[in-house]
Specification:
The chain is an alpha/beta fold. It folds into 2 domains: about 140 residues, Rossmann fold (3-Layer(aba) Sandwich); about 70 residues, Winged helix-like DNA-binding domain superfamily/Winged helix DNA-binding domain (Arc Repressor Mutant, subunit A), CATH 1.10.10. It has a 5-stranded parallel sheet with strand order 2-1-3-6-7, sandwiched between helices. Helix 4 links the parallel strand 6 and strand 7. Helix 7 packs across helix 10 and helix 8 packs across helix 9.
Length: about 220
């Protein structure tokens, strides 16, 4: 079962979506009306997926989504919004969300999009399933998808550090390191730590690191 949290200030709508998802194999762990509640629920239940409305009564859904991702690095955060504005879609994906689905989507389309996100893709309203991050904005670097913490860990991986060493350097638990590593592997479309470092080096993402190390 996919542990899911729905964040939307329209409670009846959110609950209806939750019921529909529950019938399709998603385990809805909570429905939050505010950003504060969303963060508290996410920290408590550590969901696999968060379906996030961007218009919340107590804050910006983009900031709430980023905060949840910091607390639960393995989570997939998908915007679920009424507006199809391409600029908003772009800002959402750049903020680290795993996709953007409009509220006019059918439940079948929503579920297909969620399945695609869980499989490691980034979806957009442009056909929902076929849109990927690189198709939305080809010039955007994969590096910019990573959170600051994921970038730190990627640099340490590039230096050959192991999980325990990274945890000690950053003063976090080994489980948190593993969660961050899995998240950055997904974002870089890498199957291993070595492949992630190789991708970063090919794209020049670690040039400064190697210059410093060799200097």
């Amino acid at each position: 079962m996919i542990r899911t949290v729905i964040v939307d200030d329209h409670t009846l709508f959110a609950e209806a979506v939750g019921v529909a998802l529950a019938h399709r194999g998603y385990q809805v762990e909570g429905v939050a009306r505010t950003g504060k509640d969303a963060i508290e629920i996410a920290r408590k239940v550590r969901p696999d997926l968060v379906l996030m409305s961007l218009g919340l009564p107590d804050g910006n859904g983009l900031e709430v989504g980023r905060t949840i991702a910091e607390h639960v690095p393995s989570v997939k955060v998908l915007a679920f919004n009424a507006d199809r504005d391409p600029d908003l879609v772009w800002r959402t994906v750049r903020a680290g969300f795993h996709g953007y689905v409009t509220k006019e989507s059918t439940i079948s389309t929503l579920v297909e999009s969620l399945d695609a996100v869980l499989a490691g893709r980034i979806v957009t309203p442009r056909g929902e399933r076929e849109g990927t991050f690189d198709q939305v904005r080809p010039s955007e670097s994969r590096w910019e998808r990573l959170t600051p913490r994921e970038r730190e860990i990627l640099i340490l991986l590039g230096r050959g550090h192991r999980t325990g060493q990274i945890a000690g350097s950053l003063h976090i638990s080994t489980n948190t390191v593993r969660s961050h590593v899995q998240a950055l592997l997904t974002k870089l479309s890498a199957h291993s730590r070595l492949e992630a470092v190789a991708i970063a080096r090919r794209r020049g993402l670690l040039d400064d690191l190697w210059e410093t190390s060799n200097g």
